Inverse folding.
């Protein structure tokens, strides 16, 4: 009855080192994580190093070709129509880009998921009301919202975040609601109810951990979408305002030069692609790694992983 | 089913009014259109006339009531820019957008199902990795970039296709649809693949396999149906995006759709047209959502049948 | 000269592959053929940046409307030759000033509108009344006549007198903007399709898609070379250029150097001049040293040679060559960043609030590379020690700042403007942009107003000299503007079409001047 | 033995698409301390609804529940929480009832996150988790493993350990072994029996498997279409079923000894839709003894002459085991 065996019980705490070893076993996911780290570090520290160079105009060296060191290493990726270093601008832009995309995604993720889980858990009228509100936001032209917000308030990063976040909330709302509505009828949720656990606690203890991987997958896709939306707003002239610069703005401004100076929009476009692909890869890895039922797959060599399950 | 439809129609009415009012007020926050439509010399009297003629002098609440009253009698007002009936303009532009959206979605769904199933069938094979990488990449490239590069490669350099417009017959559809389809195809392929991987490892699919069901049959009859629900959600959201205006693509290709009309009326402070456009798209998005819910119900019933059978 | 057709890059093959995939998926490949913006052998296809919102003749001062309507569908009494600047007869054969306030016009006989009604003095009087004296609030009224009403009288069938309240030496020039329309046209509202006397008439307008004109069989003058003309519109410059390159259009307008028209590009001076307007009543811009500093930091020569690809000329005044009142020896403000900084520092020492945030407002897509231009200026101003924030706006938002009444509590702002004097006389420019209370002027002095009024009352060489002298005075004493450059426009033209664009082509593209190359 | 739990005339109706579904129709039960009440019936007869109602996962339309003399549905706040602690549940599905993202230790400790006062600190909790694991026959080191690493029987042990974590007075076991292999069933049943002896806990044991019920229950209640048609001490009900339905169930159940097997009574037809139950006696549509009266009047309660605690609602109660054989 009172057996006292000394076994460590802090299972969750011992998970982190395990995750890291798991990650290191997966080369592709490790690479993705490294790329993301690099992007984040660049966004944090890069602008300190090259902010001046990114602003430095030299009209006499406009649209210089990339892949030559004639203009110094900063011009290795070419220069823009004002003769600024594309590389330096990419680095400076990474901060703006992330400081718009990350808060926008997080904000919509948090708000949408919380409301969605709440509505799905309680069902009934609350659910209907929330879903119709999601319909309203979805059927509202985000462009109009952008024009209005950016017209009334100035087109600052914060307002851009606001617009993008609001328009993306329904995505999480719907996903979270659907999954939560399904989960609230599960037996382990019933079990928690029999303990007298409050709905909020159940949502955080049982619903959230299960739908979080799905939400994070949606969020990584959305991360990409938000960067592209920001770019589209720039295409229409209501995005990030120069002299601030974001990857989206660079792509949008560079598009007119696609034939004469392809590097202007190619490199920022590549930056968006690499970042979002890395995020997607890491997210799908994390989805497996955080699911105890699936984690074993990651311990297999990559090419064998899928086979096993279909046999 | 009819009860469900009736309930949804009723519960959708209030949100539609909310959308309408939202657009009504938001649009008016973007400034007085007088500068756009009056000559620079406009005297205070002329400005006053303009404002009165367009009912902009009443309090915003009176304007709102007038507008709602008009909507009830299907009178959406006239365009400031062209003087035409706003409803007529919106209705004229909408089919172009719908055609574009539906053909895009059709190709995206078929493509995603084929590529996604194929990739999921042998997860982590070379084919799977290539298609995953391509679909991820495709989903993260701006559409205007594809559009402009596409025009130069396929229209100008190769001369296979017209650059733009709607009058070139089938050929003029290729570039806009190809540009639009890339992102939905990429996203949907990933969704289908993910859902298929888990569906293929679900007990009842394994059961079907062990009973000797052929590979193709397993994929089409068992796994695909189960994978359809998440795909339907994402496809619905993507479709909403397409209906709500493929603004960029319509702008570049001169496609006379609702997205272009909407951005033109936003920039032209053409409130009546904007409101008509938004109401039209909102109604169709609500209808779409109802269709998606019906789709879920059908899928649900079938999946349940399958599992219990 | 502008750009090679297409440069294969490392990025392109991948994209080509992807797009190819999509193509194969959709199962269509079509040989390059007549994709139809219209026409056939005797048709001409033109691609514009935007659809005309309306073809109402009295709105033809709007570029988008005028470029289609003017001298194609409708015609004025007389027109100004954009090269010589001389007025030439059109629907009026001769005219003279019969009293200080009155001009008498002799009208062409045997002209009918396309609806069959005859063109006579009655019709001319009707049109002028409708455009200038009515409550329609026509663009032409605002742009050309201000709040002046005219007294019009049809003396007999071919004689028309027009009387202005004050003597007006350039009344005929003003009237060259009034496009004659049939008396059956509504007087209470604007119409979408005008009935004119021009060489073309509207055949078919598929809103959103295309506009077709056909030649007017009853045209009084020479029959134009093309029977049918189709207009389409594409917002993206590179697509317009591609359409001409691809043989889908014969003429594409409003291109940027980088749009890739290649050898098909034709550049021409287009009467437009860019400038920064300074809100001179707002500190710190109320201090002339700050306004001078703004002028010193703009390296006009460098901008013209690099950013504008030598297609623009540094400007020291708001009108280009060819306009009455142009000063040929323009005084171009020298680039002197050090001097600018010194001026700002001096002002700061005198307690001028130079650190106040100054807004630098531009209109999206107003001219090619406007954002780049504004970024260059912002960068230089920042170096001079001013706190400048860029704001790019859409047209409506920017117009609120450009046109009186200006919005209140805006703080100091610099407004990028582009002015095109379509009329050929500086009076139009001076009234709008230079008078202290001008519709598009932020500030001025009574003394300057007086000089402007005096110059405008003169005629002939005296008028030219008096007006030309105003520009230096403005630079030195008023300094409301920092003139930047006289601009050029680029159009792409198929080798099959013979046409020589002129400075008015952007506002009035005469189809009758175009013909097939045989 | 005083009654720990008393249920009187409990009624619960669901609104469904095509009308009203009467899941519970006047259920009356009682359960003593340390006693096991077996609840038997075909699927769809309302057993699970009854269990959920007893756990206050559903609210009854009418009738009363008395737990230790109080009505739990009237409780609020702290008192309600205190009541929750005393009644726990073991679920039928050992897969679905355990959150697969939590370790065994986390699952067992979960109830204490709500009932924070029970263990002061994490060390006490960890110790208690080890105790509970030990108690249900698992190793303390299993605390770090996830549910999917356990077999079905082990999972059910986990479920039981979790139910025990709050030291309840009553555990409602909803088909706790029906999802398990036969060999494992016996182990789990024995565990339940052992625990009852050790901890003096009462069980409401729901099952469609008569042999299982006979093995564990002190008293048995037989449900048909939302109503208890027969109840009594286990031996009495099994030896002398009064209700033809009970008799039919018994005859269908596999017997351990070949000799015990009588003729099987084959019930005709399906269970009628609970949306539209038959009038009078609800079993009459499938009863071989049904007469006109069964359709017109609700059957009376018939006492077993040999055991006054044993009764059935029937117009034509079974006479003796012999009659069963004859039928």
């Amino acid at each position: 009855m009172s057996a006292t065996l000394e076994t460590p019980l802090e299972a969750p705490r011992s998970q982190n080192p395990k995750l890291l070893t798991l990650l290191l076993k997966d080369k592709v996911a490790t690479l993705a994580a490294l790329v993301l780290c690099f992007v984040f570090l660049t966004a944090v520290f890069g602008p300190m190093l090259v902010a001046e160079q990114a602003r430095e105009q030299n009209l006499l060296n406009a649209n210089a070709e990339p892949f030559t060191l004639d203009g110094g290493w900063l011009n290795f990726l070419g220069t823009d129509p004002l003769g600024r270093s594309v590389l330096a601008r990419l680095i400076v832009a990474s901060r703006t880009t992330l400081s718009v995309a990350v808060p926008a995604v997080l904000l919509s993720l948090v708000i949408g998921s919380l409301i969605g889980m709440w509505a799905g858990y309680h069902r009934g009228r609350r659910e209907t009301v929330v879903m119709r509100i999601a319909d309203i936001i979805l059927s509202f032209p985000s462009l109009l919202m952008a024009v209005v917000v950016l017209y009334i308030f100035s087109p600052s990063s914060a307002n851009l975040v606001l617009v993008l976040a609001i328009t993306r909330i329904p995505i999480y709302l719907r996903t979270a609601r659907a999954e939560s509505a399904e989960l609230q009828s599960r037996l382990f949720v019933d079990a928690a109810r029999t303990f007298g656990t409050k709905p909020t606690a159940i949502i955080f203890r049982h619903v959230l951990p299960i739908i979080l991987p799905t939400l994070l997958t949606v969020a990584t896709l959305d991360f990409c979408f938000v960067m592209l939306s920001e770019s589209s707003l720039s295409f229409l002239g209501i995005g990030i305002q120069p002299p601030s610069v974001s990857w989206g703005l660079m792509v949008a401004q560079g598009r007119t030069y696609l034939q004469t100076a392809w590097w202007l929009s190619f490199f920022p476009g590549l930056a968006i692609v690499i970042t979002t692909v890395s995020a997607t890869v890491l997210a799908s890895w994390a989805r497996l790694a955080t699911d105890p039922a699936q984690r074993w797959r990651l311990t297999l060599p990559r090419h064998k992983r899928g086979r096993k399950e279909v046999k | 089913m009819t009860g469900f439809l009736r309930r949804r129609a009723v519960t959708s009415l209030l949100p539609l009014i909310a959308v309408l009012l939202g657009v009504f007020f938001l649009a008016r926050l973007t400034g007085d259109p007088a500068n756009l439509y009056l000559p620079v010399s406009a005297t205070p009297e002329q400005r006053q006339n303009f404002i009165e003629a367009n009912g902009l002098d009443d309090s915003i609440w009176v304007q709102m009531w007038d507008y709602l009253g008009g909507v009830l009698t299907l009178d959406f007002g006239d365009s400031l820019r062209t003087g035409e009936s706003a409803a007529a303009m919106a209705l004229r532009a909408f089919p172009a957008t719908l055609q574009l959206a539906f053909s895009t979605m059709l190709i995206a769904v078929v493509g995603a199902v084929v590529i996604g199933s194929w990739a999921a069938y042998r997860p982590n094979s070379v084919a799977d990795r290539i298609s995953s990488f391509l679909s991820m990449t495709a989903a993260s490239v701006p559409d205007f970039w594809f559009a402009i590069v596409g025009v130069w490669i396929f229209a100008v350099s190769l001369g296979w296709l017209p650059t733009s417009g709607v009058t070139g017959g089938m050929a003029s559809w290729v570039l806009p649809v190809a540009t639009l389809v890339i992102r939905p195809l990429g996203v949907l392929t990933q969704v289908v693949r993910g859902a298929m991987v888990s569906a293929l490892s679900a007990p009842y699919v394994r059961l079907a396999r062990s009973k000797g069901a052929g590979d193709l049959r397993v994929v089409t009859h068992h796994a695909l149906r189960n994978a359809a629900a998440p795909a339907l959600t994402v496809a619905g959201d993507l479709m909403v995006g397409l209906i709500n205006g493929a603004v960029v693509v319509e702008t570049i290709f001169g496609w006379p759709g609702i997205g272009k009309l909407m951005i033109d009326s936003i920039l032209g402070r053409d409130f009546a047209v904007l409101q008509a456009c938004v109401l039209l798209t909102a109604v169709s998005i609500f209808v779409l959502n109802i269709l998606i819910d019906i789709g879920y119900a059908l899928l649900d019933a079938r999946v349940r049948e399958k599992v219990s059978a | 000269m502008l750009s090679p057709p297409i440069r294969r890059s490392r990025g392109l093959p991948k994209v080509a592959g992807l797009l190819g995939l999509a193509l194969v998926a959709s199962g269509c490949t079509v040989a390059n053929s007549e994709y139809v913006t219209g026409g056939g052998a005797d048709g001409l296809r033109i691609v514009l940046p935007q659809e005309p919102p309306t073809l109402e003749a009295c709105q033809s001062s709007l570029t988008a409307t005028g470029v289609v309507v003017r001298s194609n569908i409708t015609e004025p009494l007389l027109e100004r030759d954009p090269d010589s600047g001389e007025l030439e007869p059109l629907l009026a054969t001769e005219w003279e000033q019969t009293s200080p306030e009155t001009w008498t016009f002799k009208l062409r006989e045997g002209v009918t509108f396309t609806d069959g009604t005859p063109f006579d003095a009655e019709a001319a009087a009707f049109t002028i009344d409708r455009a200038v004296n009515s409550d329609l609030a026509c663009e032409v009224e605002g742009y050309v006549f201000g709040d002046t009403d005219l007294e019009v009288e049809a003396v007999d069938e071919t004689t028309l007198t027009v009387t202005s309240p004050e003597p007006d030496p350039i009344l005929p020039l003003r009237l060259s903007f009034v496009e004659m329309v049939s008396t059956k046209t509504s007087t209470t509202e604007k119409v979408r399709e005008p009935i004119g006397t021009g060489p073309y008439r509207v055949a078919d307008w598929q809103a959103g898609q295309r506009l077709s004109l056909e030649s007017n069989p009853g045209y009084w003058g020479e029959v134009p070379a093309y029977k049918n003309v189709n207009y389409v519109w594409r917002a993206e410059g590179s697509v317009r250029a591609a359409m001409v390159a691809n043989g889908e259009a014969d003429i594409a307008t409003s291109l940027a150097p980088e749009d890739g028209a290649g050898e098909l590009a034709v550049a021409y001076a287009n009467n437009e001049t860019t400038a920064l307007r300074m809100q001179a009543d707002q500190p710190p811009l109320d201090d002339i040293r700050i306004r001078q500093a703004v002028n010193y930091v703009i390296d006009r020569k460098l901008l013209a040679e690099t950013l504008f690809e030598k297609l623009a000329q540094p400007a020291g005044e708001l009108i280009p060559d060819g306009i009455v009142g142009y000063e040929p020896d323009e005084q171009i403000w020298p680039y002197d960043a050090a001097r600018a900084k010194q001026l700002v520092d001096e002002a700061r020492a005198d307690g001028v609030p130079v650190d106040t945030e100054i807004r630098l407002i531009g209109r999206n897509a107003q001219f090619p590379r406007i954002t780049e231009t504004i970024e260059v200026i912002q960068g230089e101003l920042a170096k001079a020690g001013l706190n400048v924030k860029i704001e790019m706006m859409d047209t409506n938002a920017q117009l609120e700042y450009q046109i009186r009444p200006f919005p209140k509590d805006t703080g100091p702002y610099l407004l990028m403007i582009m002015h095109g004097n379509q009329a050929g006389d500086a009076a139009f420019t001076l009234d709008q942009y230079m008078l202290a209370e001008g519709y598009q002027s932020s500030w001025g002095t009574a003394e300057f107003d007086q000089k402007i009024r005096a110059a405008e009352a003169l005629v002939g060489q005296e008028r030219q000299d008096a007006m030309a002298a105003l520009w230096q005075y403005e630079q030195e004493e008023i300094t409301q503007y920092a003139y930047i450059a006289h601009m050029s426009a680029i159009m792409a033209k198929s080798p099959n079409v013979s046409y020589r664009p002129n400075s008015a082509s952007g506002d009035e593209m005469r189809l009758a001047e175009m013909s097939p190359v045989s | 033995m005083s009654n720990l739990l008393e249920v009187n005339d409990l009624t619960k109706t669901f609104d469904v698409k095509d009308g009203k579904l009467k899941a519970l129709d006047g259920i009356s039960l009682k359960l003593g301390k340390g006693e096991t009440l077996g609840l038997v019936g075909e699927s769809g007869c309302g057993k699970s609804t009854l269990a959920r109602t007893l756990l206050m996962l559903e609210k009854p339309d009418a009738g009363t529940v008395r737990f230790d003399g109080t009505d739990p549905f009237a409780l609020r706040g702290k008192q309600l929480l205190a009541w929750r602690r005393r009644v726990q549940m073991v679920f039928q599905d050992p897969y679905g009832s355990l959150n697969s993202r939590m370790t065994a230790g986390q699952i067992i400790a979960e109830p204490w996150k709500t009932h924070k006062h029970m263990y002061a600190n994490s060390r006490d909790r960890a110790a208690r988790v080890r105790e509970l694991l030990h108690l249900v026959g698992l190793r303390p080191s299993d605390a770090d493993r996830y549910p999917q690493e356990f077999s079905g029987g082990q999972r059910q042990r986990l479920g039981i350990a979790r139910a025990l974590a709050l030291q309840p007075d009553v555990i409602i076991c909803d088909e706790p072994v029906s999802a398990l292999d036969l060999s494992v069933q016996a182990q789990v049943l024995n565990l339940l029996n052992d625990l009852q002896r050790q901890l003096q806990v009462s069980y409401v044991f729901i099952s469609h498997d008569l042999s299982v019920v006979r093995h564990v229950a002190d008293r048995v209640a037989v449900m048909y279409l939302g109503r208890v048609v027969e109840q009594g001490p286990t031996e009495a009900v099994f030896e002398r079923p009064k209700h033809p339905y009970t008799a039919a169930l018994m005859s269908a159940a596999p017997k351990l000894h070949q000799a015990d097997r009588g003729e099987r009574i084959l019930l005709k037809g399906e269970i009628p839709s609970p949306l539209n139950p038959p009038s009078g006696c609800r079993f009459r549509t499938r009863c071989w003894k049904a007469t006109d009266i069964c359709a017109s009047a609700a059957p009376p309660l018939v006492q077993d002459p040999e055991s006054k605690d044993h009764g059935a609602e029937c117009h034509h109660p079974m006479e003796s085991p012999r009659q069963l054989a004859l039928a």
